[in-house]
Amino acid sequence: MSPVIPIQAETTMGCTDVAPLVQRGQREVFCGLTGIIWLHRKIQDAFFLVVGSRTCAHLIQSAAGVMIFAEPRFATAIIDERDLAGLADANEELDKVVNQLLARRPEIKLLFLVGSCPSEVIKLDLSRAATRLSAVHSPSVRVLNYSGSGIETTFTQGEDACLASMVPGLPSPTSTAPKELLVVGTLADVVEDQFIRLFKEMGIERVRFFPPRRADDQAPIGPNTRLLLAQPFLGDTARVLQARGATLLQAPFPLGVEGTTAWLQAAAAEFGVSAERFEAAIAAPVARAKASLGRERAHLEGKRIFFFPDSQLEIPLARFLAREMGMTLLEVGTPYLHRQHMAMELAMLPAATFLSEGQDVEKQLDRCRASNPDMVVCGLGLANPLEADGITTKWAIELVFTPIQGYDQAGDLAALFARPLVRRMRLAA
Ligand code: SF4
Fold first, then answer.
1. Cβ distance 262 to 278 under 8 Å?
2. pLDDT score at 199
3. Could you say which residues of the chain have pLDDT below 50?
4. Predicted pLDDT at 210
5. Centre of ligand 1 from the C-alpha of residue 348, in Å
6. CA 149 to ligand 1 centroid distance, Å
7. Beta bridge partners of 298
8. CA atoms of 2 and 303, how far apart (whole Å)
């Protein structure tokens, strides 16, 4: 039987050598607190306590607006004027809030103290607070901290900071532990279950997902760990996992048929899966995905799309839309370009794609309007003015909230882009 050969990123391919336009001006992005919305759904016995202002509380409430829980798994401890003026001991207040919360909610096993712009401005040391509170509440509750502040970050970096904060607490494997695959990045449970089935059909049984669904499902990390990134915005998390001895598998991201196949191929090659077994495992979902993409392609082919930098998903999305949906890429903006994690994505992008890193929003808006796009992917703050100009927009944040990875979501991913174009066409008719 022949082994699966992983796709290699060649330095002469696609946009590997393209230098992006780098801009460091005014930016229009959400802050990292946004990540709480999908993280609290994923880790079901965790609680996220934002230490912030009323603005932070409003942001979280409005981002989570449609979700009503009897017992929500996030809240904001408000820093008020007395704390800001140094009239109250913020640490004492915080301890009181945490003690009350944990007394009332015994099901919480992992508590995140989430820093914000206000907590950073008053230099509240949440890492010391987390150590202090962990000592009081362990072993029943672990208390960790990370920053979700909007100072110099984008909204997906909240997840990166959250996951990176969990790594030091993960155990080490025994020296004889067999090779294990760790899929890193929040995926919807339904997507995770599909990947577990696919890996199983290939014979890869030792698979874990990070973050886990339960706080006590702690993956041991060491030289036997092979990392497969499911999300492109996890630079810090990958770095701290690699520092524990884990090996990162080079792969594109599992968006669309091509991306998902190459992503699975990277794992299959590492775990010695035969080409025949790999093909047998993916044949049916690939056929289903291709059929669903075919239905959407008619709406997207030849349409011109412009990406503002927001989620860090821009490059994998652009690769999918250009190669599998036939869209024309006008500009692909990304907040940060991590060349190592993006190596295969860049190699797969059409040659000479206009790439930009960072933002100077007014200049980018000028470029956008001048390029006359059919669709713009951007943050909420830019969508309304662009729609008012008659330009169809897609909110970048929707692509993070929606399950879009894997074969069975490929059609849904394409439909997210097709629907607004079809709606505008109908309105214009
Ligand atoms: S963390 Fe900063 S950017 Fe985010 S809501 Fe709070 S004040 Fe605003």
1. no
2. 98
3. 66
4. 98
5. 36
6. 6
7. none
8. 40
Q: What is the pLDDT of residues 153-171, one digit of tens each?
A: 889 999 999 999 999 999 9
Find the residues whose C-beta lies inside 6 A of ligand 1: 31, 33, 52-53, 55-56, 59, 116-117, 148-150
Rounded Cα distance, 347 and 251, in Å: 11
Q: Would you state the structure tokens that stand for residue 162, as one six-digit string?
A: 């959250």
Q: What is the pLDDT of residue 90?
A: 84
CA of 151 to the centre of ligand 1 (A): 8
Whether the model pTM is above 0.90: yes
What local confidence, expressed as pLDDT, does residue 273 receive? Answer: 97
Least Cα distance to 258 among 320, 192, 333, 176 occurs for 320
- Return the pLDDT at 429: 72
- Name which residue sits closest to atom 8 of ligand 1, judged by CA: 56
Residue owning tokens 């794609």 = 353
- Of 59, 78, 124, 162, the one to substitute when testing ligand 1's pocket (max ligand atoms within 8 A of C-beta) is 59
